[in-house]
Amino acid sequence: MVPTIKLNDGVAIPQLGFGVFQIEPGQTADKVKAALDTGYRHIDTAQMYGNEEGVGKAISDSGIARDELFVTTKLNNDGHGREEAVTRLDKSLDRLGLDHVDLYLIHWPQPKQDRYVETWQGFEDAKKVGKVRSIGVSNFHPEHLDRLAAETSTVPSVNQIELHPRLIQAALREYNANHGIATEAWSPIGQGKGLLEEDTLATIAERTGKSPAQVVLRWHIQHGNIVFPKSNTLSRVQENFDIFDFELTGDDIASIDRMNADQRIGADPNDMG
Fold first, then answer.
1. What is the mean pLDDT of residues 217-235?
2. Number of alpha carbons in the 13 Å side-chain half-sphere of residue 235
3. Which residues contact 199 (CB under 8 A, 6 or more apart)?
4. Is residue 272 situated within a structural domain?
5. At what angle do helices 234-241 and 212-223 cross, to 10 degrees?
6. Domain residue limits at 121
7. pLDDT greater than 80 at residue 221
8. Is residue 271 part of a domain?
9. How many angstroms separate the CA atoms of 181 and 173, rounded?
10. Cα radius of gyration (the chain)
11. What is the pLDDT of residues 186-195, one digit of tens each?
12. pTM of the shown model
């Protein structure tokens, strides 16, 4: 049911996944189990979230073949450095109970530390020895990506960025596309925060017989973004998965695009670190 996108290294990633940001460690296994039971096969976690063990338990208990799952984790901000990036990945693999992850991301570029280039070299090392299938970045601006291109030999497969109708990031998505980098969206429905009460979304939702959240997720899918909404509520986990039986019109997509206000929920990457 879920379409896949082929990354620039040939690895296929499900376009819809389940995110575990802000899910309590003690609840993570149950929430991921519910997602897997619903049909999700793409799980996005991070060292920063503190819940990799719960993700690993749910995977182990599921009985689902490893090659049917796509698992992402991300390097913590205090783990930059060529050797440290690999050491931190090894610890993630132990917590997840896996011998490899499908995607490993630099969580933030931390430009004030100025170590993301050597960190990326550590990511290249990890991929060469099979600890990860694909390597990518998160929250990178074009200038950070340009520097990786100039000083290393591997183009990131993914750039995971804050992306929702109030921050559509058109220029960065175009940059990614022009360089063969897939765009992933974090906070794809704006963490609630009033977005889903917007009249534009309500009108489209009423016409399509879907919820505003489903409309936003469908907008991402039709833009070609990779999304992994998070919810603690089982009914919403299931609802978020049910977005492949309708399509938005071109006018719908344009009207949602016009909701852009260049409004961030998280920090600007240049201010981190």
1. 96
2. 1
3. none
4. no
5. 40
6. 4-260
7. yes
8. no
9. 9
10. 18
11. 999 998 778 9
12. 0.97
